[in-house]
Amino acid sequence: MNDKITNWTRKDDAIVEAAIRRGATRRELLQMLLAGGVAMSAGSLVLGRAGNAVAATPVAGGALKAAGWSSSTADTLDPAKASLSTDYVRCCSFYNRLTFLDKSGTPQMELAEAIESKDAKTWTIKLRKGVTFHDGKSLTAEDVIFSLKRHLDPSVGSKVAKIAAQMTGFKAVDKETVEITLANPNADLPTILSMHHFMIVADGTIDFSKGNGTGAFVREVFEPGVRSVGIKNKNYWKSGPNVDSFEYFAISDDSSRVNALLSGDIHLAATINPRSMRLVEAQGDGFVLSKSTSGSYTNLNIRMDQEPGSKRDFVEGMKYLVNREQIVKSALRGLGEVGNDQPVSPANFYHNADLKPRAFDPDKAKFHFEKAGVLGQSIQVIASEAATASIDMAMIIQASAAEIGLGLDVQRVPSDGYWDNYWLKAPVHFGNINPRPTPDILFSLLYTSEAPWNESQYKSEKFDKMLIEARGSLDQEKRRAIYNDMQAMVANEAGTIIPAYISNVDATTAKLKGLEPNPLGGQMGYAFAEYVWLEA
Fold first, then answer.
1. The pTM is what?
2. N or C: which end of the chain has fewer CB within 10 A?
3. Quick check: is 3 in a domain?
């Protein structure tokens, strides 16, 4: 008998795969192969191939449980108000978008069947037929118009109001066709519509706690700051989801979150600390680490409209004081790339690679601190577990400051309430920004004069005008040149210090299958619940 597989067909592969699913042992499988005339060494190849096929085939059933790292009593199922990863995960499970980004960052159609434009200013959206909300209502053009227009209502408090403001005209051509007119051309609209905030809700929705969407799960429980439970949508217009139910909650303490995974209480522990990776790896084949570097970052924010950030030399001194290489090596345990103080990461087509990071230079830092008159003072810096690795980063910066006579009083505050009470408010504090697919979105949310999340209160009329110019250009190289200049402006003029782009690591049980990287962030761009499955 030789090592070749003779007279072996796809049907034979299917028989082996079926035996694996029934729980046949490797010995039983090899005996079956030998009886079919397959040599031992070739049989191993067959089993490997069959095992991979079984692993890649979704299995129906099971109760999926997962834990994120942040939540608060302000948790919401209103997509327009979503601001935490916890909100994004829940919105992805209960609602759908018009488009979504695949793992390559390319917009794909979801509730939209097609999105077309001849001039990047007037867009026609054709909706899918046969889509219904959880309450049985059919999806129509009016639902889409309501969902998009509500971002323009100041009373809604949409997190993407500034981005949505470019949508100035809405028309229902018929029940399944929407026409959107923009104030100015923007070729990024299909990508923009893939953002979590632009989930589609039913026309006239007031009570968002019901989570009445078109998504893969129907809301059963929603307790803000505690947990949510979704049940498989049996009338879902797609083929999924694979699991019968999905429970999501937050465990803010990293060690507790990982221990919950190792003890079998949850199937996924989101965004684990690098220190916890070794513990997971030591468990052997029963657990898996899923790594993705998609542009998330933790940044040090200095408000330039308050003391001490109102002194330009203090901001300059802090930029020279931050040892970016040490932060990647120590605070992030190597899971990151050195940042250059602007939000467009190396994973993005428009990243300015020629913009070099500010060199760590304590002498220059001291020079600027002396000019600002802050040496010998104690300056409060707010950090929290809520902002990934911010406490470790703060300790590194504090140690460097002490060596040149600057006192940084690092205040470690609880995760609960951090985003409401400290982020955007404290004079010097840390933030944590999830990936966004385009420079336009990042700059609109974080750096224009009227940006809703303007963390350092950066104001530049020139910057605002450049963003509009880049947005309307269909010339890709022209857009790149403008975005390069804008990245340099942020790095040199704003009060945000972005030392690194963080590699996100989600830890899962080996029984959880189907998890893939996504440019919108960890947990498969926060949409994992719809696509993963639990191995029987």
1. 0.70
2. N
3. no
